[in-house]
Amino acid sequence: MGGIQISYLMLFLALVFSFLAAADAASSGKNNSTDSLWLLRIKSGFVDPLGVLKNWSEETEVCSWTGILCSVDQTQVVGLNLTNSGLSGSVSDELSNLSSLEILDLSLNFLTGVIPTGLEKLQNLRMLLLYSNYISGGIPEDLYSLRKLQVLRVGDNMLFGEIAPGIGNLTELRILAVAFCQFNGSIPGEIGKLKNLVSLDLQKNSLSGPIPAEIHGCIKLQNFAAANNRLEGEIPASIGKLKALQILNLANNSLSGFIPAELSHLSNLKYLNLLRNRMSGQIPLELNQLIQLEKLDLSVNNLSGPVHFFSSRLTNLQTLALSNNKFVGRIPSNFCFKNSSLQQLFLNGNILSGKFPLELLNCSSLQQLDLSDNNFEGELPSSLDELENLTDLKLNNNSFHSKLPPQIGNMSNLVNLYLFDNMFTGKLPAEIGKLQRLTSIYLYDNMFSGKIPRELTNCTSLTQLDFFGNHFNGSIPPTIGKLKNLIVLQLRQNDLSGPLPPSLGYCRKLQVVALADNKFSGSLPPTFRFLSELYKITLYNNSFEGPLPSSLSHLKNLQIINFSHNRFSGSISPLLGSNSLTALDLTNNSFSGTIPDRLALSRNLTRLRLAHNHLTGNIPEDFGQLNQIRFLDLSFNNMSGDVVPQLSNCRKLEHFLLSNNHLTGTMPSWLGSLEQLGELDFSSNNFHGEIPAELGNCSRLLKLSLHSNNLSGKIPDEIGNLTSLNVLNLHRNSFSGSIPSTIQDCKKLFELRLSENFLTGSIPSELGKLTELQVIMDLSKNSLSGEIPFSLGNLVKLERLNLSFNHFQGEIPFSLGKLTSLHRLNLSNNNFQGKIPPTFSGFPLSSFMGNSKLCGPPLVSCLESRDQEKNSLSNTAVVGIIVAIVFTSTLICLLMIYLMVRIWSNWRRRVSISSLDNGYGFGFEQKRSEGEIKWGCGEEKKRRNGEYWKVNSMAIVTPHDKQISRTCIFHIKDTESAGNTMA
């Protein structure tokens, strides 16, 4: 690299001396006043804020003007050098009139416009330097006629177009630099005509196509840089003929094929960079012949096979980068040698395996070693400290295990130690505290345990400390305040406990403090007020408690705060000293009071999560100023009042969660203007009224949850416009009317809950088109009727179906048998009838209760059901007969009682009359045509006080005389039948 810079300097001096000699030899009587005229016109096109051209005037000699170089005889302007003069404006076409011009340098300015035309008149021009401006357009064709041009540097501009084949006409060209432009097309093959070309710089363009094989004609080429283009195809073997080549940089292209073995002929090559291409195959062994090679980068390709090309002949090699390929196997034993100059070895991102290669310990000159992202395993050797010059050790993303050897403390030059994502165990050795130069230590995702050694705080150069995802326990060392340079402290997901040491507040350069997912307790130390550089602090999932120190309001640079899932209480105001907040998460604490209005001063706030606290009051109206907010979660608090209309200004809201509060009012129609809304949860509040139809404008909505409110009216048809909806939960409201068929357009729906409303009508058959329904379809506890549509059998992903407590009727369609994913079913308390589909026999009895006409497992079989129906009819007939008998008997008894009362009344009247004649009563003899009554007592026949009556051929015995003890017998004699005797 240094040799090339010397070549550039020698070339520049040679050019200067050559044009001075030519000017000295010239014998021209031309007056330079003509040139001054053209120069003044050129000046008029420039804007000169620094006054560099203030002495360009007719009153002074042109050869004394700034940036002007004249010939020896002062008759001709041969050079114009205004590099880095702060000029803007454009380059005038009048330049073409300076016919004696040999050097034109306008580089490092702010010039715009295009490369001037008419440059073909400058046939003496040898150096044209326009790089680092804002010049646009292409390279004019007439420029390719400048046969004496040796240096053309126009890079770092806004030039575009193709490099024309005419470039081959510039046969004297030694330096061609068009890097950092927008040139496209291919590299013309005519480039091979430039026999004197020393440096070809085409980097950072949009060149495509292959590298022309004709490039071998550039026999003096030392630097070929075409990195960061779109070159494709194979590297031509003809490059191997460029014997003078020292730098070959083809990185960041789309070159493919094998690395040509012919590159081994480049005996002067010092730098070879093929980074990030599509090269394949193995590294050719012939590259061992490049004994001058200092840097080799073959990273990010598709190279494969073992790493075996490296030999003791490459004594000058300082950097070897083979990262991100497909190299396999072990590192060979002869990889390093005693007299190696290797300082940087990057083998990361391959498939190398085996234990830590002890052969690398021979590379005592190594400063950076990266073996990360491989399959190395086993223990680290205790002799690792033989790499005494090592500054960077990166062994992350392997399978190293066991303890970290204490000898690592002897590697006194170590600056970066990356051991993350391995299986290291045991304690962190106290010897780590000897690494005074250590700035970064990454041990995350291992199995380290024990306490964090106090000695670590002796590493006072530490800026990055990351122990995430281990099993460290105990407390943070109380001497952590000694780490005055610490910027990042990452201790998340360990078993650390106890209060935070107050000395942590003396790490005044801290920007990130991540202590989440531990067992810390106590309150925050007031010394945190000294962390003025802090912009991110995460303490979630711990047991911190108590009110926040008011001194936290001094932290003016805070951007990200996450104190969720702790026991903090009191006001949140101390966290609002910064107006730069972008994320604030205080979920699941015991904060109380109202939400301070000053929170709205953080205009860049994107995430605000205050759920599961005891916050009260209204939503601040000033929240309408948070026009960048995307996540707003105030759920599970004691918020009250209406949803303030100012929130309609938060047009970027994606998650709007207000559930489980005491909010009132109606659902605001301006919700429909939140086009980015993906989640809307207003459930468990006191909202009333209808769902606004404008909500259908939220086409990106994924979740709509309004359950447990007092909403009423019909479910709007516009709900079908929510074509991205996954969850629709409207249960436990007062919705009426029918289920809108437009829900069929919510084809991504996988959860539908409409239960506990007053919905009527039938289930729309269109719901069968919701084939992504999976979690649940719950229509229970409504007043729905009709039959289950056959189309519901298309919901083959559905896991839960609840249609209970409705008025459905008819049979359960056998199409539901296709719901093989169903594991919960409730059809109870309806009017279903007929046979239960056999595929539902495994569901419990409760799934079908309250449907008297259903049969089949798990209910009784349909045959038994029919027998029971018959038995039920017979029993009904018997009951009817019994009822009829009882009714008839009752009437007869009532009639008999009535007659008996009448007869008894008549008898009493007669007895009263007869008793006036004798004291014994009266006798009577009644003759009937139907028969004759005879009675007696003993042998004596007489009539005794009317003790016997004949009523409709029936005898009733009513013994009034209790003194008669003898058996009295009466006889009824019927003339039509034989006599009957009753006792």
What does this structure look like?
With 983 residues, this protein is mainly beta. The chain has a 33-stranded mixed sheet, with helices on one face. The N and C termini lie far apart (149 Å). Mean pLDDT is 88; it is low at 17-30 and 911-983.
Radius of gyration: 52 Å
Low-confidence stretches: 17-30, 911-983
Q: Write down how many β-strands occur, each being a DSSP E stretch of 2 or more residues.
A: 72
Instruction: Give the CA-CA distance, first to last residue.
Output: 149 Å
| Count of helical stretches | 3
What share of the residues does DSSP label as strand, in percent? Answer: 25-35%
- What would you call the shape? elongated
- DSSP helix fraction: under 10%
Which secondary-structure class do the elements indicate? mainly beta
Mean pLDDT: 88
- Main sheet record: 33 strands, mixed
The gist of it:
With 983 residues, the chain is mainly beta. It is built from three helices and 72 strands. It is 9% helix and 26% strand.
Give me some keywords for this one.
mainly beta; single chain; elongated; 33-stranded mixed beta sheet; 3 helices; 983 residues; 20-stranded parallel beta sheet
Architecture blueprint of SSEs:
Layout: H1 2-25, H2 33-44, E1 46-47, E2 68-70, E3 77-81, E4 88-90, E5 103-105, E6 110-112, E7 127-129, E8 136-137, E9 151-153, E10 158-162, E11 175-177, E12 182-184, E13 199-201, E14 208-209, E15 223-225, E16 230-234, E17 247-249, E18 254-258, E19 271-273, E20 278-281, E21 295-297, E22 302-305, E23 319-321, E24 326-329, E25 344-346, E26 351-355, E27 368-370, E28 375-378, E29 392-394, E30 399-402, E31 416-418, E32 423-426, E33 440-442, E34 447-451, E35 464-466, E36 471-474, E37 488-490, E38 495-498, E39 512-514, E40 519-522, E41 536-538, E42 543-547, E43 560-562, E44 567-570, E45 583-585, E46 590-594, E47 607-609, E48 614-617, E49 631-633, E50 638-641, E51 655-657, E52 662-663, E53 679-681, E54 688-689, E55 703-705, E56 710-714, E57 727-729, E58 734-737, E59 751-753, E60 758-761, E61 776-778, E62 783-786, E63 800-802, E64 807-810, E65 824-826, E66 831-835, E67 853-855, H3 862-914, E68 931-936, E69 948-951, E70 954-957, E71 969-974, E72 980-982
Parallel strand pairs: 3-5, 4-6, 5-7, 7-9, 8-10, 9-11, 10-12, 11-13, 13-15, 14-16, 15-17, 16-18, 17-19, 18-20, 19-21, 20-22, 21-23, 22-24, 23-25, 24-26, 25-27, 26-28, 27-29, 28-30, 29-31, 30-32, 31-33, 32-34, 33-35, 34-36, 35-37, 36-38, 37-39, 38-40, 39-41, 40-42, 41-43, 42-44, 43-45, 44-46, ...
Antiparallel strand pairs: 1-4, 2-3, 68-71, 69-70, 71-72
